[in-house]
Amino acid sequence: MVPATQRLIHRAFAIVALLAFAIAVAVAAALWLRRAPVSLGGQVGGLSTVLVLAAVGVLAGSAFLMRPESGSRRALKRTSAVWSVALLLALGGLWTLAWLRPGLGEVEGALLLGAPQTESFLDANRLGSRETYPRIPTGVTLLSFEFTNSNDVHITGYVWQKYDRSIPADVTRGVILPEGSNAYDLTLAWQTDYGDYEVLGWYFDKIFRQQFDYRDYPFDRQSLWIRVWPLESAIPVVLTPDFASYPPWSTHAVNGIDPLFVYDGWHPIYSAFSMKIHDYGVNYGGDEPAPLTPDLYYNLVLKRAVLSPLVKHLPFMLVISSLLFATLLMTSPDEGRKGKFGLTTAGVVGASGALVLTVILEHGTIRSIVGSQQVSYIELLPFTLYLMIGLVTINAMLVEERVNQPFITWEDSLLPVVLYWPLLLAILVVVTWVALF
Length: 437
Known about the structure:
This protein has 3 domains: 102 residues; 195 residues, Neurotransmitter-gated ion-channel ligand-binding domain (Acetylcholine Binding Protein, Chain: A), CATH 2.70.170; 132 residues, Methane Monooxygenase Hydroxylase, Chain G, domain 1 (Up-down Bundle). It has 11 helices and 10 strands. The protein has a 5-stranded antiparallel sheet with strand order 1-9-10-7-4. Strand 5 and strand 6 form a beta hairpin. About 1% of the residues have low confidence.
C-alpha cells in the first residue's frame, strides 16, 4: 500500500474514532439530563446506542494507534485481537441491556393501578353510571403456571367477586374464563357473607391458549393474562379490579402471586389489572347489539431466565466457530504448508459439509425448543455459522485456484485469518442491536 493511501486510512480511523466518541457522549448526556430510571424511562435503547458507538470508537481508535494499514503482521494481529475483545464486550453489554430493558406496556388494554384510573377509564368510555352499569369488584390470584407448548400455558389459581347489596338479584353470580379449557367449569371454593356484601371465590385449574411472541428468545418477555367475563345477565355489569384486596399497587408490584410460586426458568417483572373494550360484532341472538362493556384482564409479565438458554447454545457455537477457524488457519497457497497439514480444498469442502450438517441439527433443536413459527433471535447463531462456513469454503476455493487477489494470497492468506473473529463478532453485535433494540 502506498504511503499516501496509508496516511489517508490512518486519518480516517482518527476521524471515525472522534466522531463515534463524540456522538456517544452526546447521547449519554441527553439520557443523563432526562434523569429517568432505566426501568421506567425506556432508556435502554439509548444506552445500547451509546454502547455501540463506544465500540465503534474503540475499533477505530485502536486501529489508529496500531496502524494495521502499514501491513505489519504484528500490527494486524494486535488489531484483530483488540477488535475481537471490544466486540465481545459490546455483545455482552447488549445482552445485559436486553435482559434489563423495561417491561411496561405489555398488558392487554389499558393498564390500571388503582380505583381512580379504573373510574377514569369507564368515564372515558361512557360507562360511568353505576345504576346502568353496576360494578362488581373482581380479584385473581395465581398458584402455579407451566408452559405446555408455544401457545398453551397451564395455570391454577383463584378468582373471586364481591357482590354489594345494591347488585340486583337477577345478576347471575359467577365468572367465565373464556381462554381457559372448559371456560364455565370452575369450582366454588368459598362463599362468605360480610353483611354489606357477599364474597364468592372459585378455584380454577385450566389450560389457557394465548399468542406469545418468541422473536426475542432467549431475551423475550411474555405476558400471561387471564380474561374474566361475568356470567350471562340481562343487566350489563362491569367487572372492576378489587384493589382493596391487594397490597398497594405500583408499576413494579407483583401482587396476586403465591409466595411459593415456582417460576421455572422465568423472572417476574410485574403483575397488573387492565381493561379493554372489544367489539365482537354480534348481538348474540338479541334484538339489538349488546352494550359494549370492557373485558377485565389480570396480567403477569415475565422475562426469561436467560442464562440457561445461553449456556445451552453458546458452547456449541464456540466449538463450531473454533473448528472453522482452525480450518481457515490450515488453508494456505503454500505447497509446503499444504503437505504439512494434509488439507486440500476437497478436504475443506468436506469439513465444511460436516459442520453444516452439525449446525443444521443444532438449528432444528433450537426450533423445537422455541416451538414457534416465528424466527427467534437465538437463530442468529446458526445463521451466522452458515455464513462463516460459506466464506471459509469460498476462501479455500479461491486459494486453490490461485486467484490473483492480494486480499486472498497476501502473506500466506493472513488477512482472512485476522478478520475472521472480528467479522463473526461484528455480525452478532449489529444483528443483536437491530433485532433487540
